[in-house]
Specification:
Formyltetrahydrofolate synthetase, domain 3; alpha/beta; 589 residues; Rossmann fold; 4-stranded mixed sheet; Domain 2, N(10)-formyltetrahydrofolate synthetase
C-alpha cells in the first residue's frame, strides 16, 4: 500500500497493483468464519456465499452493529459514497474490529458511460476491479434473462391468441387471457444506456413474426426483478414475488401476471443462483459482499437484505450502502428496506464534500469530462456556507428516522481548513457527529477519525426507530409525506394518467399497503435537476405511477426522469481495453 499514490495513479492502476497481493476467497472465508462448503468459488478471488446454510448455522449468534452510508445531493461526478463505504470498513479494521461491507454491483450503463464503475476510488476500493465492473458472478445476466423471458412469454402469447381460436388454444393447453396489446405494463431490459431503444415497435413482419405493438427498453437495474432481488428475504420469498409481477393488462383492465403466463417458475430458475451474495474484498483485505444494483433514482437502489443479514452475523460492524442522497437512497432504505427486513441501523453516515456544497451554494455547473471551474479548486468558504442548507436537509431527514447521523467530510486535496470548519460547525449545530476522512488518499489509516466517530455513535442508546408513514396510509398521503418531509415540496400534482393508475390500485384493497418507491432525479432535492441547494416554493409533479406488485412497491414517477438513461458523446468505453500481453483490463474507473 505504501507505494500506491492516488495523486499520480489512476484508480484502475491502483486496483491492478493491489490485486497482486489479494487474499484468495478461501483465506477470506476462513477469516470470516465461513466454512468451506458454504463457499461457492468463481475462480480464486471471487465467490458466492451459500447464505441459507450460513444463516442456519449462525442463527443464535448476536448481530453486529449496523451502519448505512448515504450522502448529500451529489454533483454529476458523485461524492464518493462507495469510496467512503470501503474506507470506513478499512478504518474499522485499523481500529481492530471485524468489519464487512455490502455494496451494490455496478450497472454496465454507467460503467461504459460517464460515471464509471462503483468500486470506490484511490486507496479505498473493492477488488478485483475488472470482475466487479464487468459482470461479476452473473447476477445482472440472470435479472436480464428472467425479465426478458417474461416479455417473451407475453409477446408470444399475444401472437398465439391473435392467430388461434379458443378451441385451438385449448388443445394446446392454453386459456385465452385477452391481453390488451396497447396496455403492456413493462418493456424489455438491457444493461446499457441505450436511448435509441426507449421507444420501439416489435413484431414487424408476417403472421409468424410476432404481434406488432409498441414497446421499449429500460435499463436492467430498473427492472422489478432487480427490486425483488434486493428485497427478498429468501428463496421461498423470491419465488412468491416472481409470480406476482404484472406484465400487462387484459381488455377489461385486469392485470396479467407472470403466474398467469406460467413463466414465473422458469424466471425463478434463472434467478436461483443470483440470490447468493458475491464475496470480494477491499484493497486492505476486508470482506465485501456485493449484491443487487444501483440507480436509487429509478429503482430501489439498495444492497440486498440478504447481504445485510449475512454481514451482521459475520462481523462486529456491517457497513451497507444506499443510493445517491438521503432524499432518495436513505428514504427507501428507511421506509422500504428496514420496514421489510426488521433490521434497524445504529447510525447513518452522510457523505459530504466541499465541492458539492460549493455547487449548492451557487457555484458553476459541474460537467463530467470537463475541468472543474476555479471556484471548486480555490478557497471559498463563503460559497460553502451558502450551500450548507442542502447538508442540513439530509441531516434532518436522517434524524426523522431516529437514526444517529454522522457526517463524513470526504476530504479532497483542494479543501482548506477554513472550508472544512464551515461544514463542521453547521453539521454539529444540526445535531450530527462530524469526521474528516482522507480514505481516498490514505486508505484505512485516513479513515480512523470516521471509524472512531461511527464506533462512538453505535454505542449510544438511541430513541425508538420511526418510519415516515404507516402501511395503511392512503397512497397519495404517503407520496405527500415523502414530498413534503423529505424533499421539501409544498404539495404534489398528478397528471390524469397518474390519477387513473392510483385509482385502479386503490380499487384492489390487497395493494393499498404497498410501499412507495419514488422515481426522481438524484441531482436535486426537487424533481428539477437544475434546482440546487434546498429549493423552496415548489410542487412535485407525478406524471405516472407504476405497480411493482411482486416487489411490493408502488412507483410514482416524478418529473422528466426516464427508466432508460442515454449514452453521452464521450463515454468511458472509449478508454476501456485489454492489454493483450498480460490479459488485464485497462481504463476502468
Amino acid at each position: 500500500m505504501a507505494d500506491l499514490n492516488p495523486m499520480n495513479m489512476k484508480d484502475w492502476e491502483i486496483a491492478a497493483a493491489a490485486e497482486e497481493q489479494m487474499k484468495t476467497v478461501y483465506e477470506l472465508a476462513e477469516e470470516m468464519g465461513v466454512e468451506r462448503m458454504e463457499l461457492l468459488p468463481y475462480g480464486h478471488f471471487v465467490a458466492k456465499l451459500d447464505f441459507i446454510n450460513i444463516l442456519k448455522r449462525l442463527k443464535g449468534r448476536r448481530d453486529g452493529k449496523y451502519i448505512v452510508v448515504t450522502a448529500i445531493t451529489p454533483t454529476p461526478l458523485g461524492e464518493g459514497k462507495s469510496t467512503t463505504a470501503m474506507g470506513l470498513v478499512q478504518g474499522l479494521g485499523k481500529l481492530g474490529h471485524r468489519a464487512i461491507g455490502a455494496i451494490r454491483q455496478p450497472s454496465g450503463g454507467p460503467t461504459f458511460n460517464i460515471k464509471g464503475s462503483a468500486a470506490g476510488g484511490g486507496l479505498s476500493q473493492c477488488i478485483p476491479l475488472s470482475d466487479f465492473s464487468l459482470g461479476l458472478t452473473g447476477d445482472f445476466d440472470a435479472i436480464n434473462n428472467a425479465h426478458n423471458l417474461g416479455m417473451v412469454a407475453l409477446t408470444s402469447r399475444l401472437q398465439h391468441e391473435f392467430n388461434y381460436g379458443d378451441k385451438t388454444l385449448a388443445r394446446k393447453g392454453l386459456k385465452r387471457l385477452d391481453i390488451d396489446p396497447r396496455n403492456a405494463a413493462v418493456g424489455w431490459t438491457i444493461d446499457f444506456c441505450a436511448q435509441a431503444l426507449r421507444e420501439i415497435t416489435v413484431g414487424i413482419g408476417g403472421k409468424m413474426d410476432g404481434f406488432m405493438m409498441r414497446s421499449g427498453f429500460q435499463i436492467t437495474v430498473s427492472s422489478e426483478v432487480m427490486s425483488i432481488l434486493a428485497m427478498a428475504t429468501g428463496l421461498e420469498d423470491l419465488r412468491k414475488r416472481m409470480g406476482k409481477i404484472v406484465l400487462a393488462f387484459d381488455k377489461r383492465g385486469k392485470p396479467i401476471t407472470t403466474a398467469d403466463l406460467e413463466v414465473d417458475g422458469a424466471m425463478t430458475a434463472l434467478m436461483f443462483r443470483a440470490i447468493n451474495p458475491s464475496l470480494m474484498q477491499t484493497i486492505e483485505g476486508q470482506p465485501v459482499l456485493v449484491h443487487a444494483g444501483p440507480f436509487a433514482n429509478i429503482s430501489i437502489g439498495q444492497s440486498s437484505i440478504i447481504a445485510d443479514r449475512l454481514g451482521l452475523k459475520l462481523a462486529d460492524y456491517h457497513v451497507t450502502e444506499s443510493g445517491f442522497g438521503a432524499d432518495i437512497g436513505f428514504e427507501k432504505f428507511w421506509n422500504l428496506k428496514c420496514r421489510l427486513s426488521g433490521l434497524i441501523p445504529h447510525c447513518s453516515v452522510i457523505v459530504a464534500t466541499v465541492r458539492a456544497l460549493k455547487m449548492h451554494g451557487g457555484g458553476p455547473s459541474v460537467v463530467p469530462g470537463k475541468p472543474l471551474a476555479k471556484e471548486y479548486t480555490e478557497p471559498n468558504p463563503a460559497l460553502v456556507e451558502r450551500g450548507i442548507a442542502n447538508l442540513i436537509a439530509h441531516i434532518e431527514t436522517v434524524k426523522k428516522s431516529h437514526i444517529i447521523p454522522v457526517v463524513c467530510i470526504n476530504h479532497f486535496h483542494t479543501d482548506t481548513d477554513d472550508e472544512i470548519a464551515v461544514v463542521k460547525r453547521a453539521a454539529e449545530a444540526a445535531g450530527a457527529r462530524v469526521a474528516v476522512s482522507k480514505h481516498w488518499a490514505l486508505g484505512g489509516e485516513g479513515a480512523r477519525e470516521l471509524a472512531e466517530a461511527v464506533v462512538d455513535a453505535c454505542q449510544v442508546r438511541h430513541p425508538k426507530f420511526r418510519l415516515l408513514y404507516e402501511d395503511d396510509l392512503a397512497i397519495k398521503d404517503k407520496i405527500s409525506r415523502i414530498a413534503s418531509e423529505v424533499y421539501g415540496a409544498e404539495g404534489v400534482t398528478y397528471t390524469e394518467l397518474a390519477e387513473q393508475k392510483i385509482n385502479a390500485i386503490q380499487a384492489d384493497h390487497t395493494l393499498n399497503q404497498l410501499g412507495i418507491c419514488m422515481v426522481k432525479t438524484h441531482l436535486s432535492l426537487s424533481h428539477d435537476p437544475s434546482r440546487k441547494g434546498r429549493p423552496k416554493g415548489w410542487l412535485l409533479p407525478v406524471r405516472d405511477v407504476l405497480l411493482y406488485r411482486g416487489a411490493g412497491l408502488i412507483v410514482p414517477v416524478a418529473g422528466d426522469i426516464k427508466l432508460m438513461p442515454g449514452t453521452a458523446s464521450d463515454p468511458a468505453f472509449r478508454r476501456i481495453d485489454v492489454d493483450v500481453k498480460t490479459g488485464k483490463v485497462t481504463g476502468l474507473f
